[in-house]
TrEMBL record:
Single annotated GO MF: ubiquitin-protein transferase activity
GO terms (BP aspect): proteasome-mediated ubiquitin-dependent protein catabolic process
Species for this entry: [Myrmecia] bisecta
Keywords assigned by UniProt, alphabetized: Coiled coil
Coiled coil stretches, renumbered: 76-103
Region (Disordered): 1-23
Name of the protein in its database record: CTLH domain-containing protein
Annotated CTLH domain residues: 171-228
Amino acid sequence: MCSDIDGTVERGGDEGMWTVGNPREENRGALTIETPLLKVPFEALRRTTKDRKYVVDEVHVVVGELQKHASTGLSREQQAATLESLVNRLQGLKRKLAELSTNEQADAQRCKARLEHLSEASAVGRQSPVEWSRHRLDRILVDHLLRSGQQDSALQLSEEAGLEELVDTHIFTGARSIVEALLQHDCRPALLWTAENKARLRKIKSKLEFKLHIQEFIELVRQERMSDAIRYAREHLAPWASSHLAELQRALAALAFKAHTSCEPYSQLFQHSQWEALADLFCKELFRLNCLTPESVLAVHLQAGLSALKMPQSYTDNSSKEDPLHLQAFRTLAEGLPFAKHVHSKLVCAITREVMDEHNPPMVMPNGMLYSEKAAKQICGCNGGQFVCPISGAVCNEKDLRRAYIS
């Protein structure tokens, strides 16, 4: 297949159809997998608006209490103390409303910027799709760098490409210190985060808070502070008995086996790899709460592309050098992915949009561009026997066109 053909070439499905399209159609297809781009700020805006409602309702409650205490028969000192307490509550609610307003404005601006970014995909002109695709690639790279922990590089790339409002650096920046603390065997920042998001984590049935408390308990056992460990278990682990009894019993048994045991599965509880597992679990729950994809978009695109190209012939000794899967690096990336299913191949002309077959065979220009015989006759009939390529502008005689055969 010639790489000079305008648009995209797709293979897939039982028909294994090859579609020769145009950039505008390609961008419309790309929009279908851009759901997280809009969903992340929209869901954040929805949550912020909901939090604002709760705060406003609380303000009404405080105002009602102010009016109630104004008509009571309390002494002047009691009324002053009560009023001071209510005023302090109102000041706290005011600060919370100001913070929510700032977050709400930022989320609304992100929604607007991303809607405008997606609308640019349908802009008229051949250069617009290319420029839009370049920004999209930079955005995907920033997302991958953020997930890989390369936040400095991600921030630099987003600033240079002008993508600050199209990427979610604010989510990862806030989580960076928590991940670093977990890798340094410190659960406190993560526990504070779970306390702030307790309702949302309970809604998605997250085990993160339970796992963090288990790890804190195990560390007390590792230090042989048995009394503190028992006290901690009664306070923080006992409430989880109804939902995680088996894991809780195994953790409590560590009191008898202690840190240097070689007995499975209790020895696993004391392995330092548990901290890395906690950091991974935190990231997964962070992505779930913020409507981010479990894997980076770059990994999703790579897997989809490699799966579409992966065939048994790619692993033979005489595989084509143009096939990316003849390289060991791509084979490693494609490991575990299914093979593409290609029963038949079809070519669709970029001019007539008709299938090219034995009745309408594909014709190749000297420069490698490929069109259907029907399109070639139409164009040659309008140009005195000369074929003018609508993409590159190259001109050739009708007799210089050569038929291509599909294997």
